[in-house]
């Protein structure tokens, strides 16, 4: 049974970063709570991540925590915007 179908029923209800169920619009896109929080923490804390593989890691609901670099790059590539995030 594919995990993608467990997360959301319609493609528009899926987080464009990881495929989990969307909780609302965050930073310009409909995303899940997990990706919203990850993106906010990364930008606020000015984190710099490095991929230990080829820079093309699979980012899905199950594997989203394995590579922060590739996850953040995917956040940016799908259109999440840093505007509006206040820095600590």
TrEMBL record:
<keyword id="KW-0863">Zinc-finger</keyword>
<dbReference type="GO" id="GO:0090575">
    <property type="term" value="C:RNA polymerase II transcription regulator complex"/>
</dbReference>
<keyword id="KW-0862">Zinc</keyword>
<dbReference type="InterPro" id="IPR013088">
    <property type="entry name" value="Znf_NHR/GATA"/>
</dbReference>
<dbReference type="GO" id="GO:0008270">
    <property type="term" value="F:zinc ion binding"/>
</dbReference>
<dbReference type="GO" id="GO:0000978">
    <property type="term" value="F:RNA polymerase II cis-regulatory region sequence-specific DNA binding"/>
</dbReference>
<dbReference type="GO" id="GO:0004879">
    <property type="term" value="F:nuclear receptor activity"/>
</dbReference>
<keyword id="KW-0804">Transcription</keyword>
<dbReference type="Pfam" id="PF00105">
    <property type="entry name" value="zf-C4"/>
</dbReference>
<feature type="domain" description="Nuclear receptor">
    <location>
        <begin position="12"/>
        <end position="87"/>
    </location>
</feature>
<keyword id="KW-0479">Metal-binding</keyword>
<keyword id="KW-0539">Nucleus</keyword>
<keyword id="KW-0238">DNA-binding</keyword>
<protein>
    <recommendedName>
        <fullName>Nuclear receptor domain-containing protein</fullName>
    </recommendedName>
</protein>
<dbReference type="InterPro" id="IPR001628">
    <property type="entry name" value="Znf_hrmn_rcpt"/>
</dbReference>
<keyword id="KW-0805">Transcription regulation</keyword>
<dbReference type="GO" id="GO:0009888">
    <property type="term" value="P:tissue development"/>
</dbReference>
<dbReference type="GO" id="GO:0009755">
    <property type="term" value="P:hormone-mediated signaling pathway"/>
</dbReference>
<dbReference type="InterPro" id="IPR016355">
    <property type="entry name" value="NR5-like"/>
</dbReference>
<keyword id="KW-0675">Receptor</keyword>
């Amino acid at each position: 049974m594919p995990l993608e179908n467990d997360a959301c029923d319609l493609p528009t209800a899926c987080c464009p970063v990881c495929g989990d169920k969307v909780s609302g619009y965050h930073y310009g896109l409909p995303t899940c709570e997990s990706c919203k929080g990850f993106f906010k923490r990364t930008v606020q804390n000015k984190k710099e991540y490095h991929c230990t593989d080829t820079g093309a890691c699979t980012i899905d609901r199950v594997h989203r925590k394995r590579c922060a670099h590739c996850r953040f790059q995917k956040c940016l590539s799908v259109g999440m915007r840093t505007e509006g995030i206040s820095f600590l």
